[in-house]
């Protein structure tokens, strides 16, 4: 009888822990998805800045070439 009671208590505890782990996993997945989205935004922003820098370098070179002529 004590063994059955202990087994039921363990089962209940295990079910609660499993439920908690599943909720935690779901939250972690949401956080990872958000992190992935923000990382993609950062990469796009960095690429855009790189393109702007290259354009500024081209304009600067044209100005320098114009001054030297």
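^ Assign residues to that structure.
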């Amino acid at each position: 009888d004590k063994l059955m009671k202990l087994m039921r208590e363990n089962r209940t505890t295990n079910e609660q822990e499993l439920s908690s782990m599943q909720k935690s996993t779901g939250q972690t997945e949401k956080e990872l998805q958000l992190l992935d989205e923000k990382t993609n935004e950062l990469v796009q922003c960095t690429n855009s800045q790189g393109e702007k820098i290259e354009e500024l370098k081209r304009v600067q070179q044209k100005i320098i070439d114009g001054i030297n002529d």
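The longest helix spans residues 2-68.
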